[in-house]
TrEMBL record:
GO terms for cellular component: plasma membrane. Gene3D superfamilies: MetI-like. The lineage of its organism: Bacteria, Bacillati, Actinomycetota, Actinomycetes, Micromonosporales. It comes from Micromonospora zingiberis. It comes from the Bacteria. This is Sulfate transport system permease protein CysT.
Amino acid sequence: MTSATLAPDRPAGNRRSVRGGLPLTRVSGLGLGVAMVWFSLLVLIPLAAVAVTAAGGGWDGFWRTVTNEQTAATIRLTVGTALLVTLVNIVMGTLIAWVLVRDNFFGKRALEILIDVPFALPTIVAGLVLLSLYGPGSPLGVNIANTRIAVFLAFLFVTLPFIVRTVQPVLAELDPEVEEAAASLGASRYTTFRRIVLPSLTPAIAAGAALSFARAVGEYGSLVLLTGNLPMRTEVASVRILSSIENDNLDSAAAVAVVLLAISLAVIVVLDVIQRRVMRRG
């Protein structure tokens, strides 16, 4: 007799339960309800309020705000610099994670701690540190204050740990014996990395890149001292939003915020698509 003959028939309702998951119990239903209420209070309702405020002036008012020369310049600078910083972090963050996991060297523990400094340091203090090193009277002889390079440097400083900390635990869990087996079969280091290591790291890299981009787009504190917030030159979107609020123009502030939100969501979707394609090809 075959295994199919021996297996008892399951009721249709049970088969549907297996496919669709177990029904919620009272406790799990209560937990889901609390989680959704909490998420709504912290995320969904504030986002909806911003969208409603942005629409307060109508489509014409929204379009005039986001196409205003100064506003458009701040959005281009913010998004362009955030994308560039994210690309740099993808390379350097993965490299740093690789060194921390695969290599042993003097000062490794100190480096592990220093990586998290941008997380722990208040952003205004980070701006003061960067100004001391790269502003007027710099001990390094480098003065980039009030330039777009200062915006790039500030974004780079505050976003450094994201990809390192998302990639590092995944890399630590990879079995080196799989790479050794690939090498014994004649695979080059590049092929081993591309076909074995990279597909495993891609979800972590994509998650870190999304966090890095979102953090850079919303950065404010580290820029205040170093960039000078010069309109059309070093002013970023967060400063533009604050200026609109101070001038009692909430519609304009909300319009810029909605544009940044839409761009961030688009970047997350693109990263997810790239992640899936890399994993399939791997």
